[in-house]
Amino acid sequence: MQLRPTRKEDLDQVMGIISQAMTYMKTAGIDQWQNGYPDRPTIEGDIATGIGYVAEDEDGSVVATVAVTFDGELSYRQIEDGAWLTDGAAYATVHRIAVRANCKGRGVSSYILAQVEAMCRQRQVGSIRVDTHRDNRSMQRLLQKNGFSRCGRIFLCGGAEDGHERIAFEKVL
Fold first, then answer.
1. CATH of 2-172, one of 3.60.20.30, 3.40.50.1820, 3.40.630.30, 3.30.300.30
2. Are 63 and 53 spatial neighbours (Cβ–Cβ below 8 Å)?
């Protein structure tokens, strides 16, 4: 498996994976990604700005998608009911991680997080931050299994989910 930047020709596959994730969340009763986000323009923006990545299996098939930024996150400036593990230091942010339905349970998400850690070490970035919906237990388990600590609650700033509460996690590398 490899993690590589998303290309324009990956767009349809990425949107298919996101659609599967939206369906999963709806079926599981998770009120996340139920209002049209993330949409095609969001993923096109990820490609254009170089923050979109896909995981490919050994056959070259796209099996997952993720966005990784190193610019800080406006929504993370204020945290409630806790505190970030690091303060003022550079960090990576992981957004929009989704795995193709028939590849779940194969360690793809853990592989992606390990690759993000490697990206951070290359850039000398000391931590990774992620947020997720309070009902998205599978994402919370993934993060805890991979050494992330629950830090508190944040509220999203801007976009289709403006003001929505999320549980915030961080891992110090």
1. 3.40.630.30
2. no
Among residues 173, 155, 172, the alpha carbon closest in space to that of 164 is found at 155
| pLDDT tens-place string over residues 22-70 | 999 999 999 889 888 899 999 999 999 999 999 999 999 999 999 999 9
| Per-residue pLDDT reduced to its tens digit, 62-85 | 999 999 999 999 999 999 999 999
Q: 58-90 burial, b if ≥16 CB within 10 A, otherwise e?
A: eeeebbbbbbbbeeebebbeebeeeebbbeeee
**Residue found under tokens 């989910």:** 161
Strands 127-132 and 92-99: what pairing? parallel
pTM of this prediction exceeds 0.70: yes
Amino acid at 69: T
Enumerate the H helices of the chain as residue ranges.
Answer: 11-27, 40-49, 108-123, 137-145
Burial class (CB in 10 A: 0-12, 13-18, 19+), 9: exposed
The CA distance from 127 to 151, in Å, is 13
